[in-house]
């Protein structure tokens, strides 16, 4: 993506996470505790570590990592959601967590200055995710560790095209979800050796997925994304595993919710 488009994408990301700061932020910090703890285990977060959580949003990883490491910086370029991270840190009495406004593609740290760099659900919002991994590698000491949690998409071009199309209707700041081979390539190019990885499915309902992106059933974005999601049910053509389930209570005349699965990948790596 060229620089002009990169700036346009960044503006869309800031707009999205300003308007959904509360609804998305409160969801992320309450529902992603297990994810953050799993990543902390995979990267062996330790009491002597100085760490950064880039694109930290409401502090989803940073709030958990602060309990395992000496010092952690939560960095994000959307002031509204970073403010939520600050409030959360204050409420939880985490004096070793600092929140800084900044760009994940140009980290405000010197070369080889940190032990640990982590990020979650950010790479799919960035036009050049490889540049983020290069920055993570740059600021780490040799042997320093990287932890990444993000959406994982199928290698099948048709499936990933439909998957990304639905994601972009839901959130126009979604750039591109990565497949396993993309992660392998960009980690390798950044001089990072993968030491562990895990894939996990996150079951949820379509309505809730749309809700945390700021949409309700009557919105055109909801309607368009739902039509595509339903059309992918027969062959699971977008890899969301969508299905209807018998519900105890359905309001007369109302369409049932859709059950679906978001697939996530957790990767731990070290700087060679
Ligand atoms: C989907 S949210 C994820 C937030 C958090 N890491 C989590 O897992 O809940 C994406 C976040 O990435 C941030 N972001 C995207 N691109 C960024 C960049 N280049 N530099 C800093 N933050 C960025 C957005 O502001 C937003 O807070």
Provide the CATH top-level class of the largest domain.
Answer: Alpha Beta
Quick one: CATH superfamily of the largest domain? Vaccinia Virus protein VP39
Bound compounds: S-adenosylmethionine
Distance between the first and last residues' Cα: 28 Å
The portion of residues forming beta strands comes to: 15-25%
Number of helices: 10
Gyration radius, rounded: 19 Å
- Supply the number of structural domains: 2
| Proportion of residues in helical segments | 25-40%
Mean pLDDT, nearest integer? 96
CATH topology of the largest domain: Rossmann fold
Structural class: alpha/beta
The rough form would be described as globular
Catalogue the unreliable spans: none
* H/E element sequence: HHHEHEHEEHEHEHEHHE
- What is the CATH architecture annotation of the largest domain? 3-Layer(aba) Sandwich
Main sheet characteristics = 8 strands, mixed
DSSP strand tally: 8
Short description:
By secondary structure, this protein is α/β, with parallel strands linked by helices. It contains ten helices and eight strands. It has two domains: 3-153 and 172-203 and 262-271, Vaccinia Virus protein VP39 (Rossmann fold), CATH 3.40.50.150; 204-259, no CATH class.
């Amino acid at each position: 993506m060229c620089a002009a488009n990169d700036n346009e994408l960044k503006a869309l990301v800031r707009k999205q996470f300003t308007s959904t700061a509360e609804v998305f932020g409160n969801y992320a910090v309450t529902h992603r505790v297990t994810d953050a703890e799993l990543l902390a285990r995979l990267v062996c977060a330790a009491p002597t570590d100085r760490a950064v959580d880039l694109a930290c949003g409401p502090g989803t990883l940073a709030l958990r990592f602060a309990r395992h490491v000496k010092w952690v910086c939560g960095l994000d370029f959307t002031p509204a959601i970073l403010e939520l991270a600050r409030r959360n840190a204050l409420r939880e009495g985490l004096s070793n967590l600092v929140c800084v406004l900044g760009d994940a593609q140009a980290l405000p740290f010197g070369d080889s200055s940190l032990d640990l760099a982590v990020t979650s659900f950010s790479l799919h919002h960035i036009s050049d995710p490889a540049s983020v991994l290069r920055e993570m590698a740059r600021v780490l000491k040799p042997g320093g560790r990287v932890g990444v949690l993000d959406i994982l998409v199928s290698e099948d071009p048709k499936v990933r095209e439909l998957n990304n199309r639905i994601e972009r209707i839901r959130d126009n700041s979604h750039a591109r979800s990565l497949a396993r081979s993309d992660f392998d390539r960009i980690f390798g190019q950044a001089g990072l050796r993968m030491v562990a990885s895990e894939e996990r499915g996150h079951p949820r309902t379509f309505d809730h997925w749309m809700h945390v992106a700021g949409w309700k059933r009557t919105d055109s974005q909801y309607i368009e994304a739902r039509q595509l999601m339903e059309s992918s049910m027969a062959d699971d053509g977008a890899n969301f595993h969508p299905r209807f389930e018998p519900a105890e209570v359905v309001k007369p005349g109302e369409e049932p919710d859709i059950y679906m699965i978001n697939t996530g990948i957790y990767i731990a790596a070290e700087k060679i």
